[in-house]
Amino acid sequence: MTIKLRIHAEEALVVDLVMTVTARLLLTDMCRAQVLLFMSPDIMTTNKMLMGEILRDPKFVSEINYSACFRQLLKEAAADDLLDLDNPREAAEGFISLRKGKTFWPVRLGAPLVGADEIEEMTESSVDLIISRYDNGAALRDGQ
Q1: Would you say the pTM of this structure is higher than 0.90?
Q2: What's the pLDDT score for residue 14?
Q3: Which residue in 9, 23, 25, 44 could disulfide with 82, CB within 3.0 to 4.6 Å?
Q4: How far is residue 129's CA from residue 98's CA, in Å, rounded to a whole number?
């Protein structure tokens, strides 16, 4: 995936920065960020409130779009020929479920917070599963 950035420091100075990043790097960074959010006390409190609202009004859950950023990332990775997938939504929801099943729901139900080493191991495992499922050979070409 190529990220293009144009920086205007002054009118006379324009810098074009083009970076190529791998699907593995993007997925790993997003996974780490999401795990930190899942385990945040503020997010846990907000989710308690949301769960109560969902029980009161089940239609409310249809308005929550929790997979949009991952779906967009996977869609762009497929468009850039980094991954081979037909259904970005299914892939995004599966990727999110890998982490929620280990870091969100157990804690939500009273288990202790997951440690940093286990988070890193789970992150690598989740990314490996997605790459192995949707790899089109680009991972090998990109040195992933």
Answers
A1: no
A2: 53
A3: 23
A4: 9
